[in-house]
Amino acid sequence: MDKPKTYTAHELANCFPMMTDAELEEMAKSIKEGGQREAIELYEGKIIDGRNRCRACRIAGVEPIVYDATDDLKDVDLAKWVMDKNGIRRHLTVSERSIAAVKMSRTEYVRFITKQEQVRSGEGVPYPPDLGGDVQERHSAPQERGDTLDEIAEKQRVSRRSIAYASKVLNEGTEELVKAVESEGLSLTRASEIADLPKEEQPAKLKEAKKPRSPKVKNGQPASAKKAAIFKECSLLFTKLLAASRRIGIDDDKFGHHFDAIITELNRLGGRK
């Protein structure tokens, strides 16, 4: 029996983390038992949506169902389309979305200047180091390049600070550090602190950061129970704030963006204690 056909993933699709091995095995089992329910979409011969489905089909030994969406997407902002697809289907954390946003900004920038024949073969382009004038100037030129860094941050509903942390981790962190943020739950705040260290010292610090912490008990109440109570209170507060913002005419997307920025800042301040 011939092996299922494989396809190369598009650069923009690769800005998002793959599923874990366990999740892929579960998807492969589902495909083997019930078939592939959604086609893998291709753009110019590469997978623009469906990398995990393609990998799962290969695990299951099933020939993948593909659809060439090149004509459908020729007049579409491809970066936004990929973001929408991933944002709707997957529950990514703020840290994961921030890393993806910076990766996508870099990918779009490279694609643009490559089209303009301004990049020689093999030359690298650094990740935007911050959100200052140089970045804005670099990323605000021709529209065919795609979104500016700020526009991607807005689309992903993450704060500027999160984007700055993600840029730092991608610029100065090891591959293992980036992977820990993308798929192992390490916070961007902690990762950016580790990225401050020389690369040879980062693995030891990362290993220390991954160590499970012993459950804390305060006033006879487990920390997990206390956190659950706090989460409930925060949920009620969020609902009240959202209702109030609607009464005074604030758009939900704008409210969500600013609320996310507040949470990120609180997490940063909390990490300092």
Structural class assignment: mainly alpha
Gyration radius from CA atoms, angstroms: 21 Å
Estimate percent helicity. Answer: 55-70%
Bulk shape: globular
Biggest pleated-sheet summary: 3 strands, mixed
- The protein's oligomeric status is single chain
Strand order of the largest sheet: 2-1-3
Q: Uncertain runs with pLDDT below 50, 5 residues or more? A: 128-146
| Strand and helix order | HEEHEHHHHHHHHEEHH
| Strand segment count | 5
* Total domain units: 3
Number of helical elements: 12
Distance between the termini: 59 Å
Which whole number gives the mean pLDDT? 75
Summarize it.
This protein has 12 helices and 5 strands.
Pick out its properties.
273 residues, 3 domains, three-stranded mixed beta sheet, two-stranded antiparallel ribbon, 12 helices, globular
Task: Outline the fold blueprint.
Elements: H1 21-34, E1 40-43, E2 46-49, H2 51-60, E3 66-68, H3 78-89, H4 94-115, H5 133-138, H6 149-156, H7 160-172, H8 175-183, H9 188-195, H10 202-210, E4 217-218, E5 221-222, H11 223-247, H12 252-271
Parallel strand pairs: 1-3
Antiparallel strand pairs: 1-2, 4-5
Describe, in plain words, how this protein is organized in 3D:
This protein has 12 helices and 5 strands. The chain is mostly helical and 273 residues long. It has 3 domains: 1-84, no CATH class; 92-211, no CATH class; 219-258.
